[in-house]
Amino acid sequence: MEATPAQIAQYERAKARIEGPLGAKVKQLITIGDFGDDVDAWGSDYGFDFQVVSDDTEAKIKKILGAYNRLARVIAKVDIGKYGVRFEAGDFDVMAPVGYPGDELAMDKWVALDGIPIIIVVGALVVGAIWGTSEIVGSVTSKQEKEIELKLRKIDAQMIKNPDPQIRTSWQVLKKQNEPKLKAAGIFDKIFGGGASTSLFIVGGALIALSLIWSRSKK
What we know:
mainly alpha; 6 helices
């Protein structure tokens, strides 16, 4: 059965959110996480143990990236007809047809993020309530980014007042070196002041899935 125009519009809104604002938000997290790694490495050179990106933070970022990739992947498979859609009360589920390869289905099936359970019903449900699920990913992403941002603000306040002029100068150099990518991601001013930033990553029309592997520069 083909979807109605209203259902198609509902699907397109969810797809646009995943490809656009949600993808931009996850990219912001990647950028601030990478910068956090740079700050940790810089701090180690001067005897500081900042742990902006601890092992626990790294694990959380990887889990968020995996969740985003899962959403992006199943939406892409709906677009090419591998998966179908079941509309339910203002949201929709992504479904696999009968006989779909089990290993591929297992890779795509949703798993709980940040302790929030996703109810799996009987049948070949891949991801339930796509819109609601994307909201969960966005909320967890924002929370993790904020945690890193607050750590960096605290470190910045400490470093610009450090009595050692070499440390103060080196810190400013590190900030300057990272300013272009942080501004492109819309997070430089959020960390270091200068007014609220409205800049965001621009996500193109094609679906962009982020890498499942996030490499920490300090390892």
